[in-house]
Amino acid sequence: MIKVQNLVKKYGDKVAVDNLTFTISKGGVHGFLGPNGAGKSTTMNVITGCLRATSGSVLIDGVDMLESPLEAKAKIGYLPEIPPLYENMTTHEYLVFVAEAKDVPYDKLYRNVNSVMELTSIEDVSGRLIKNLSKGYRQRIGIAQTMLGNPDVILLDEPTVGLDPKQIIEIRKLIKKLGKVKTVVISSHILSEIEELCDDVLIISHGKMIAHDSIENLEHKLEKTQALSISVRGQKESVFRTLEQVGGLTDCTVTGSRGGVVSLKLEHDSGIDIRDAVFSALAEAGCPILSMDTSALTLEDIYLKLTDSEESSAPEENGKKKKSRGGKKK
Amino acid sequence: MSVIFKREFRSYFQNVTGFVFIAVYILIAGAFITLYNFFSFNSSISYAVSDLMLWGAPLIPILTMNVIAKDRKSGAYQLLYSLPLRSSDIILGKYFAMLVVFAIPTAFLALMPLIFNFMGEVNYLVSYTSIICFFLFGAALIAVCTFVSSLSDNVILSAVFNYITVAALIALYMVKPLIALLPAGEIITKILSVFDIFGKFESFVYGIFDIKAIIYYLSVSALFVFLSVRLFERKRLM
Fold first, then answer.
1. Sheet holding A28-33: strands in order across?
2. Of A49, A273, A327, B198, which has the highest C-beta tally within 10 A?
């Protein structure tokens, strides 16, 4: 649905987007991740025609943004980081203006406006001036305007910023719903949001793409070892001796010991499930397992691993080496 | 284009901008008409129009100074760029909205020859060609100021640029007769007359229809609207 080829965007000498190539398939919700200044908003602005690329091409459903901008833009709904609103207009006037600009036929225009207002729960502020509305309402009006004209692709830059928890849940539900019928691309710093909503993620750093895959596939690619956290009733030494016999275990660390209960972190090769073997060995040794938990990589771990490795390999700027994030994990 | 025109035209009346512009323009026009026509028992509106051009010119930036910068400030430019609209549609929509607001005090002027008719003989041809020329002068000045506004994304800078432009054009008109007195002043005056937007109306004051002035105003309008479109499109690259 979106095909970006060799996209380069330079601001003077600074390269904001560096030869970016990716394809986003039709339907679903796709996440766009990257540290501040990575080039996410620039890429989104180029995709939507707000910025012109230095070189490269953007195809929206096969239509070239540079060659046929009007046709390509008709297929897109875009919410930039700051909702693009006219403050002296009422909500209804603003949405009618956007619908008219998107060439929605007159007989469908008011139905279209009313339906997006209903979807984003802004009917109660239909007649109010936008300048008098809260940030949450403004954000929702911004989302509502993206849906006008029934575009195939919806791009949302930080869609839940400024919303209260209840509104965030509602908007996430709406994005999920939209993802079933449209191609939705969201840029967000809230990793849990991306994890919850997106089918796949595209991670960029320093204007370059460093990963584009489903979250599960990224986990598999990055996990060389997996870990198992257990707490066992018994003596530390006997628990240790018993676990030594379990095959596939690469490391065993005691994380705590209190009142005859030992907490351990067991690391093992990825692709091997050692839970059965651990259970049987400890049961035979008379050490009952009180709790067992597998700890898989979260999107945050994946994001930090990828962006940290990219930052450490990035060229030094102005003779100063960039600070490492420290690779802290949750 | 019509969708931008409607939005922009309405925006002038969603706050006091449009009302202030029209009211002050009509007030100045009324003052000159009272002075040159009612007090002097003169049925030609050309004298009043000539002075209205000069004294009303500083009002034009009220319409134009925020025409581009306000969208940059509010972030609405991203909406305009992402909508399926041409840059020319956006700029022309904004330009025609300003022209229609300017047409309102011009329409007030157009009523005057009809009122003068009750007091004596009126040369309608001279009066209405003067009023048409006044409207075209306004169209040209609006185009110039729109272009100047496009140079900056900052609301205050944009206003400053607008007033400097209008002040420079008025100053040029004022000092032109003095320059003519200098050695080689005639040549300098000829060169400067290209920028003399006010001086082009002088023939109309004497009841002479000057097609060159009409062509000049139309050309300036077209040139600066074209340049504004190019600049708006160029900012997409930034």
1. A76-79, A153-157, A183-187, A28-33, A200-205, A208-214
2. A49
Is residue B211 within 8 A of residue B132, CB to CB? The reply is no
**B 63-82 near A (Cβ less than 8 A):** 74-82
Q: Mean pLDDT, chain B, as a whole number?
A: 89
Distance CA A49, CA B8 (A): 22
Query: For testing the chain A interface, which of B15, B82, B85 should be mutated: the one with the most A CBs within 10 Å?
Result: B82
A4: part of which helix (H) or strand (E)? strand A2-11
pTM as predicted = 0.80
Residue type, A267: E
What CA–CA distance (Å, rounded) separates B142 from B105? 14
Residue A14 in contact with partner chain B when CB distance is under 8 A: no
Q: Reduced to 3 states, what is the DSSP secondary structure of residue A196? A: helix
d(CA A265, CA A72): 53
Report yes or no: A173 at the B interface, CB cutoff 8 Å. Answer: no
H or E stretch at B70 = helix B69-74
Chain B interface includes A23 (CB < 8 A): no
Domain boundaries, chain B: 2-237
Q: Measured between CB atoms, does A50 come within 8 Å of chain B?
A: yes
* pLDDT tens-digit series, residues B72-99: 888 888 899 999 999 999 999 999 999 9
Chain A / chain B CB contacts < 8 angstroms: 74
Output the 3-class SS for B116-160: HCCCCCCCHHHHHHHHHHHHHHHHHHHHHHHHHHHCCCCHHHHHH
Q: Tell which residue, A185, A146, A151, has the closest CA to residue A3.
A: A185
Q: Does the structure's ipTM exceed the value 0.90?
A: no
Task: Give the amino acid at A217.
Answer: N
Type of residue at A158: E
Q: Enumerate residues 6+ apart whose C-beta is below 8 A from B151.
A: B158, B161, B231
